[in-house]
Design goal:
GO terms for molecular function: ATP binding; ATP-dependent NAD(P)H-hydrate dehydratase activity. Its EC number is 4.2.1.93. Keywords: ATP-binding, Lyase, NAD, NADP, Nucleotide-binding, Phosphoprotein. It is built from 13 helices and nine strands. With about 350 residues, it is an alpha/beta fold. It has one domain: UDP-N-acetylmuramoyl-L-alanine:D-glutamate ligase (3-Layer(aba) Sandwich). It has a nine-stranded mixed β-sheet, with helices on both faces. α4 links the parallel β2 and β3. The longest helix has 29 residues. The protein starts with a helix and ends in a 7-residue tail after the last helix. Bound molecules: ligand NAX, adenosine-5'-triphosphate and magnesium ion. The site of adenosine-5'-triphosphate has 17 residues, from α10 and α11. Ligand NAX binds next to α3 and α10.
Length: about 350
Amino acid sequence: MLGYSIAIRRLQCLVRFLVGQNKNRLHSTMTTVPGIEADALNVLRSITPTLDLTRHKGQAGKIAVIGGCREYTGAPYFSAISALKIGADLSHVFCTKDAAPVIKSYSPELIVHPILEESYSVRDEDKRSISAKVLAEVNKWMERFDCLVVGPGLGRDPFLLDCVSDIMKHARHSNVPMVIDGDGLFLVTNCLDLVSGYPLAVLTPNVYEYRRLVEKVLNCEVDSQDGTEQLLSLAKRVGGVTILRKGKSDLISDGESVKSVSIYGSPRRCGGQGDVLSGSVAVFLYWARQRVAELEPRSNPTMLGGIAGSILVRKAALLAFENKRRSTLTGDIIECLGMSLEDICPVNRHR
Ligand SMILES: NC(=O)C1=CN([C@@H]2O[C@H](COP(=O)(O)OP(=O)(O)OC[C@H]3O[C@@H](n4cnc5c(N)ncnc54)[C@H](O)[C@@H]3O)[C@@H](O)[C@H]2O)[C@@H](O)CC1
Ligand SMILES: Nc1ncnc2c1ncn2[C@@H]1O[C@H](COP(=O)(O)OP(=O)(O)OP(=O)(O)O)[C@@H](O)[C@H]1O
Ligand SMILES: [Mg+2]
């Protein structure tokens, strides 16, 4: 009886797998944007490092997420754990004191620094010294990081955002790449100088964040007809930062070119998927920077990182959806990151 039910379950799995394969094919042929569709699978393969026994801890990437406050503890966790699941060696989170024990309790894999402060816990006369202390704490680590992710679950407290502005200025001074998402985009939209002209910045706006950026920078409404031209102008106007506009197709531009990633994807729009993307882009951006000198033709590593992060998260979302359907949640997508990467780029067999 037991053997019979195991056989039935295996058969069901096989059928689901075959249907899934077929759907993957459908997704990859039906929805591509002609002309600007990125060769995303090959981009991902070309920048993903091989695994071998000569490498030591840290070489595959050290990522830091600046985010996590009283309201939001899920977002920084999703971003930081995604970086690890893709292949980074170390993932840090710099968050408020309230958020830290919660984030630590989700995972022992993350290194959590409870250093940020919100206005409610700081007296006016202490603000200057506390912000200097926050900056000093992050700076102790700054040189070690290969990429920062600024914004997942950061909140919008004015004192906290002032401290984060200082952190961003120092990251920029140290040439540390930054992926900016969520409340980080709220900060940057109100203070464009933080990223303007910094080629190592990647902004990852969703539909509302993109609208706010367009209104602020281009002083007009989002062009629903020719999205690519407008994205190109936006990235150019912000001084050549890379912008990954999330949507039915992801569009990525550094002001010089626009690429789209349309294949894969899932119809579930549960919260947190953008956080997964931010952690993923951070890792791929670092990997792209390491490989870029060997690649022909030479490409902008922030574009390559955006394209690779986009396709991987879309594939993981599709895989999770095939299994969980309407109940698909962000945690399910994170569980599919490793398998999706292995499907596209099997360990040590991709070059
Ligand atoms: N589990 C978690 O802790 C999560 C926290 N998140 C964090 O939550 C913070 C806020 O990000 P959100 O994306 O939720 O931002 P918002 O609070 O701006 O948007 C929340 C939702 O409100 C609606 N909305 C926003 N602007 C609108 C407009 N102009 N017109 C109509 N509807 C509008 C949209 O449905 C939007 O998805 C960020 O720090 C983000 O990282 C999210 O990443 C989701 C998951
Ligand atoms: N209509 C869509 N069809 C397919 N995939 C989509 C669609 N919209 C967004 N995505 C994908 O979902 C992921 C997250 O994008 P989304 O716009 O949901 O981010 P977000 O709103 O910032 O999420 P979060 O809840 O984490 O803040 C991206 O990888 C993007 O490619
Ligand atoms: Mg978001």
